[in-house]
Structure formats: C-alpha cells, structure tokens
Design goal:
By secondary structure, this protein is mainly beta. The protein is about 0% helix and about 40% strand.
C-alpha cells in the first residue's frame, strides 16, 4: 500500500551472549522509483593527489505495476557532498550528470567524505531514488628527492652540497 511505513530490525548474537541490533525504517512510495547505485563498493578509498571520479548507474523504474505513463524516459541527477568538510558544490564537476569528478588536491588526507547522488524522472520528480558512497582519503608517504640522481660526483676536498628542493608532501 502506498505511503505505508515499515520498520525492520536485525538482531545479531554470538555464542557468548553478546548481541547488537540495527533498525531500518522505510516508507513505500506511491510510484515506482528508478534504480540507482554508485559504481564500486559502498566504502571506497583514494588519495589526495589522485582525485576522484564517481559514476552513477541508473535504470528506469518498472511501470507494469501502475497505470502511470511517462512522456519521456529522461532522468536528471544531482550530486552533493554531505560530510561537512567544507567542500563546495563547485568542487564537484558534473559535465556528464551521471558522473561526479573531483580534481586532484581537493580532498584532504585522513578524512572520510560522503557523496550522495539523487536521480529522478524529469516528467515526474516524485519518482526518484538516492545512492550514497563513503570515500576515505588515505595518507601518502613523503616524496624525498635529491637532485643529480643516485650518484653525485664531487672533488675530494670540495664541500658536498645536496639539493633536496624537489622533496614534497603529496598530502
């Protein structure tokens, strides 16, 4: 029945008597929603210097259970970052609406970001769905560089000068 609310509870217990519970509340939509997922695992990882590209996979809702007719099969998409780390909407490039791209050096190392994509039918925005992914930004090792390569020739009594100016922290 459309609008009906359902609550599901999962209780897991081990042989030592310890247990944990999780509850999920959901509401049945009046109309079918498009299927929507973000490619890859629900928890992903990247590095600051690599950047990030997220791809949404979506499909039309099955309308054989309703009398609705869509005048178009076009879906629209909206991406957002929801973890509150100060990322701006302009930091997420969406030239292709199914794809969210963040250039290198936008994400901060050791932080977890939560990205949400919403897809809806252009002719009926109430027919929508949401997918979420969590992205952890791993630390990278320091990059130590000495100019001149692995061997630096010098005269016996001349002072040895090493140039480490190319050393950097990728994070």
């Amino acid at each position: 029945e459309a609008g009906a609310e359902y609550t599901f509870e999962l209780v897991a217990a081990n042989y030592l008597g310890a247990s944990a519970a999780a509850t999920l509340a959901t509401k049945k939509l009046a109309m079918p929603a498009p299927s929507l997922a973000i490619q890859g695992a629900a928890a992903q990882a990247t590095t600051r210097s690599r950047g990030l590209t997220l791809n949404a996979d979506s499909a039309m809702p099955a309308l054989n259970c309703t009398r609705s007719n869509l005048s178009t099969t076009v879906m629209a998409y909206s991406w957002a970052e929801e973890s509150g780390h100060g990322l701006l909407a302009s930091d997420i490039a969406t030239a292709n609406p199914r794809k969210a791209t963040l250039r290198p050096d936008v994400l901060e190392a050791t932080r977890t970001y939560v990205f949400r994509v919403v897809a809806w039918m252009v002719t009926d925005p109430s027919m929508n769905n949401t997918a979420v992914v969590s992205v952890y930004v791993r630390e990278q090792p320091l990059m130590a560089r000495i100019a001149g390569g692995a061997t630096v020739p010098t005269e016996r009594l001349a002072p040895l000068v090493l140039d480490g100016a190319a050393t950097y922290d990728p994070d």
